[in-house]
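Fold it.
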Amino acid sequence: MAVPPLILMLPFVLLLGAMALAPVLAPRWWLKHYPKVALGLGTITVVIYLFVLRDPASLGHAAHEYASFIALVGSLYVVAGGIQIRVPEGATPLANVIFLFIGAVAANVLGTTGAAMLLIRPWLQMNRGRIGAHHIAFFIFLVANVGGCLTPIGDPPLFLGFLQGIPFWWVMQNCWPMWAVATGLLLVIFFVVDKTALSRASGDGRRAVPRAQTVGPPPPPPVPTWRFAGLPSLFFLAVILAAVFINHPPFLREALMLAAAAGSFFTAKPSVHAANEFSFHPVTEVAVLFAGIFATMIPALAWLDHGAGGLLGQNPPPGVFYWGTGALSAVLDNAPTYLGFLSALFGVSGTGEISVLLGQKTAHILAISIGAVFFGAATYIGNGPNFMVKAIAEERGVRMPSFVEFVLKYSLPFLLPVLVTVWLLFFRS
């Protein structure tokens, strides 16, 4: 991947700026024209790489990563839409904490995308009548990101590390203390926030009813216990998870995922799709926006790949990798960011063997792993399921904060203190 001129990062900066500001300043315009903005800026980068830089290899690499990404996210979304989990409504803050903890654990088996897509609908249902943006924000923090740091299946960056030679169980053996601290702190913070919101709503004598429940088909009647429907789709979910480990021949993994999605979609009962209010709008929005992101971030990742080693110095402490990987994982896709800093660690360590690196730089690899996974929760675009969870919540009538509001109202006051605590305990020295 050649080092591009700095000016080529402008489309990426413009796209991030549009995603952050347009929904606030011109929401109707953005809803109508976001495909033109994302695909237009992406096309500019593609044309320059093809006809000016003559670097089709970088485009091909990005296209393959995008195909893998959208195949995984899209197939999990479709399969999860064929599984209905009904839970009792009127959840208490303690019940919500238990649910989020279960989701954080499940993320290591189903992946953050699979767990988020499977559990977001029952999460919305159990809090029906008082669902707020803080419910979705902490769901993104715990289920769609932080929870998945115990196995390579949990989050794409860790799976890339597994493909680089990091043993499967090394992740759990070394990451569990950070997982326990971050998950525990976030659950405690959520309990306080949710209990405060419930008390305030009860004191005001009013309930915040989502717009989605005042229009369209009536919601299903409440149930006294958990109920499941569409369980045959679990087979297709297993196919997708197994396909994650297939690397050859090219695109077989993606083909199996799409085949599983098609099988689930056509065999699922219409009543399950109707109960889940299933539509392709959320995954379409994600596909369009991330097509622009994957294209425009090619120059940024090229700069990271070639310049990180020089910027980090000769013997950087683990904290440099933690904050460096994390900060960029919040605005770039966290999987290639992980690889960029792992490559930089190889460079500053003077070794090309992952086994040697595991012995000499364990804390540094941990810092890269935790930084990529945890900081992916800081923005809607840090990790694949974030934006899809947001889109599903909005489709159900939840008023979600804009890109900037999410950072200012939730990431900075609630997530950042947890990230700082993890740094102080594990990566400061």
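The beta strands are 84-86, 227-229.
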